[in-house]
Specification:
Blueprint (H helix, E strand, L loop, with lengths): L2 H25 L7 H25 L5 H16 L6 H21 L1 H5 L3 H21 L3 H23 L5 H4 L5
Length: 177
């Protein structure tokens, strides 16, 4: 596998892991999924995202943040008509945030489970915003179609779990951390 394929497949697999993990988080009260499986999926997706950044910096930008900024600015200009390279910093912020979230979940699972629902909504919303831009706004062809399908599935799952009756409390509390 060459550099561009490594870069492409690490992000594709990271996004699949992200989406699958978010679906599991949404349906968890209705299923008795093991939290350890969810945590492992979240962790693997994060590692794949980091591998994507490393591959991109290595194969496309010669480890130059200035070059990554310029390439991002050009891509943004090509798609949106605005020359802005700051998206590279948003990507790096997502990486730092995701690593911090993974470490929190592994190092203090009880604290992680008791975190504010607002944190969960904010982090998942931010990650989905980045994923939507990466898959739908900045891609064409089959990748864009795949992104639209993925987001449609997420939307359907969200609608389904939002309008289903809440499961009994003892089911939601039955799994371990």
């Amino acid at each position: 596998m060459d550099g561009p394929q490594i870069t492409a497949w690490t992000i594709r697999l990271a996004l699949l892991g992200l989406m699958a993990s978010i679906v599991l988080r949404m349906v968890r009260p209705w299923l008795t999924t093991n939290v350890g499986v969810q945590r492992m999926l979240w962790t693997v997706a994060c590692v794949l995202f980091l591998a994507h950044i490393v591959a991109g910096m290595h194969y496309y930008h010669d480890w130059s943040n200035a070059q990554a900024y310029a390439d991002t600015a050009q891509q943004t200009y090509d798609k949106l008509g605005v020359r802005f390279g700051g998206g590279i910093y948003v990507n790096h912020f997502m990486a730092v945030l995701w690593v911090a979230d993974v470490l929190w979940w592994w190092m203090a699972p009880q604290s992680y489970a008791a975190r504010s629902p607002r944190w969960e909504q904010w982090i998942v919303g931010f990650f989905l915003f980045i994923a939507f831009n990466g898959l739908v706004v900045f891609k064409d062809g089959p990748l864009r179609v795949s992104g639209l399908i993925g987001f449609a599935v997420l939307g359907l799952v969200w609608l389904t779990v939002t309008f289903l009756p809440t499961p009994r409390a003892e089911l939601a509390e039955s799994s371990d951390l």
